[in-house]
Amino acid sequence: MAGSVLACMLVATPIIVLALDGPWWGGVVFGAALAVSATLGDLAESLIKRDLGIKDMVKLLHGHGGLMERLDSLLPSAAVAYLLLTLFAPA
C-alpha cells in the first residue's frame, strides 16, 4: 500500500504542476487520495460480495472476475479526482 501511495504521488505531482499549473503539494494530496480511494473502493466491493456470498458480481468478463471487479476502484476514484481537481486546478 505504501508503494502504491508513493507511486501515485510521484506520478500525480508533475501532472498537476506542469500540465494543470497547480501547486506541488496539490499533486501529493491528489496522488495519495486517489491511491486510498481506489483501495477503499476495492475493499468495499469485496465486502459486499462476501456479505452476498458470491464470487463475481457479473459474469460478463470471463476470466477477469466480472465487470464490477474492473470498476470497483475506478468509480470512487473518479469522484475523488473530480472534487480534488476543482480545488487544485480550477478551469
Give the tags.
91 residues, mainly alpha, elongated
Task: Describe this structure as you would to a colleague.
By secondary structure, the protein is mainly alpha-helical. It has one domain. The chain has four helices and no strands. The chain has helices at residues 2-19, 24-52, 68-71, 74-88. The radius of gyration is 16 Å and the shape is elongated. The model has no long low-confidence stretch (mean pLDDT 88).
Overall tally of domains: 1
- Pairing-aware structural class of the strands and helices? mainly alpha
| Quaternary state of the chains | single chain
Alpha carbon gyration radius: 16 Å
- The averaged pLDDT comes out at 88
The share of residues in extended strands comes to: under 5%
Shape: elongated
Order of helices and strands: HHHH
The level of helicity is over 70%
Main β-sheet description: none
Number of helices: 4
Termini Cα gap: 32 Å
Uncertain stretches: none
Q: How many runs of DSSP E, i.e. beta strands? A: 0
